[in-house]
């Protein structure tokens, strides 16, 4: 492991590779306890999470559901709830995947909020968008979608005195692959420190269907490039990223892309600048 690999892995809190199912089970229990402790410390009883149909939100959602079910039993209080929120932009092209994820999560409540009218309304008020190329406008509005989804989740959570869950993990964090103040905004991030393969392993151990566990990751924010895989955007695979974070040797080109991307996106992981 290079010094830079070790430095980045430490900064992101990367956990050791799983060596057995017992390791996976222990990590599941630890993260459920973290969710419960966070709720209790906040004196809140409701968790809210947007569900896309991918493995990250499916895993975080199932952990949240198990956490509130245990709290209901332990506290003898039925007001502990998990709310799964579908946040399509018009009709999501992989809606079947999202429904499969909801079936696996088995949330206490499932809501659907179409963000398209809000995004279109805002876009209609921003004259600067008219001067952009089609591709640039699509990219900008992709970030607007991510931020609108988080706004919707916080609106639901605020109305119920609840907390918003984020799905960021180490393999996304190192690449800065989240929208600043969009899907990067949350009250708790129970997948933090995991690499992508570990998220998949946890999902599988929790009983997620193979279609969810193996779904090709995509942010799916751009209309002109619907469903573009994360790995296409990264220029490296998640296997490469996982190996880098867990201190394994990687190709020089992979090392360079990950380190350069990490440095370029540091502002996303930092608090706002102050004087």
UniProtKB/TrEMBL annotation:
It comes from Phytopseudomonas dryadis. InterPro entries: NAD/GMP_synthase, NAD_synthase, NH(3)-dep_NAD(+)_synth, Rossmann-like_a/b/a_fold. Pathway: Cofactor biosynthesis; NAD(+) biosynthesis; NAD(+) from deamido-NAD(+) (ammonia route): step 1/1. CDD domains: NAD_synthase. NCBIfam families: nadE (TIGR00552), PRK00768.1 (NF001979). The keyword Calcium does not apply. Deamido-NAD(+) binds at residues 147, 180, 187, 267-268. Belongs to the NAD synthetase family. Mg(2+) binds at residues 56, 172. Residues 28-272 form the NAD/GMP synthase domain. The lineage of its organism: Bacteria, Pseudomonadati, Pseudomonadota, Gammaproteobacteria, Pseudomonadales. Its EC number is 6.3.1.5. GO terms for molecular function: NAD+ synthase activity. This is NH(3)-dependent NAD(+) synthetase. Signal peptide: none annotated. The gene is nadE. It is an enzyme of class 6 (ligase). Catalyzes the ATP-dependent amidation of deamido-NAD to form NAD. Uses ammonia as a nitrogen source. Homodimer. It catalyses: deamido-NAD(+) + NH4(+) + ATP = AMP + diphosphate + NAD(+) + H(+).
């Amino acid at each position: 492991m290079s010094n830079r690999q070790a430095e980045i892995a430490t900064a992101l809190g990367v956990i050791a590779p799983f060596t057995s199912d017992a390791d996976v089970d222990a990590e599941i229990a630890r993260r459920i306890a973290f969710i419960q402790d966070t709720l209790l410390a906040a004196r809140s009883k409701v968790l809210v999470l947007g569900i896309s149909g991918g493995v990250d939100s499916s895993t975080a959602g199932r952990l949240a559901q198990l956490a509130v079910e245990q709290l209901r039993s332990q506290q003898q209080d039925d007001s502990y709830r998990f709310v799964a929120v579908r946040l399509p932009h018009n009709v999501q092209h992989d809606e079947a995947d999202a429904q499969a994820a909801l079936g696996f999560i088995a949330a206490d409540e499932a809501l659907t909020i179409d963000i398209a009218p809000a995004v279109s309304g805002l876009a209609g008020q921003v004259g600067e968008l008219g001067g952009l190329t089609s591709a640039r406008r699509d990219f900008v509005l992709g970030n607007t979608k991510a931020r609108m989804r988080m706004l919707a989740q916080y609106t639901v959570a605020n109305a119920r005195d609840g907390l918003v869950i984020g799905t960021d993990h180490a393999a996304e964090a190192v690449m800065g692959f989240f929208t600043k103040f969009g899907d990067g905004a949350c009250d708790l991030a129970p997948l933090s420190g995991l690499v992508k393969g570990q998220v998949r392993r946890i999902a599988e151990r929790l009983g997620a269907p193979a279609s969810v566990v193996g779904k090709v990751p995509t942010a799916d924010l751009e209309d002109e490039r619907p469903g573009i895989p994360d790995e296409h955007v990264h220029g490296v695979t998640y296997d490469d990223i996982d190996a880098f974070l867990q201190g394994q040797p990687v190709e020089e080109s992979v090392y360079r892309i990950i380190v350069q991307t990490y440095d370029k996106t540091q502002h996303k992981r930092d608090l706002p600048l102050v004087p």
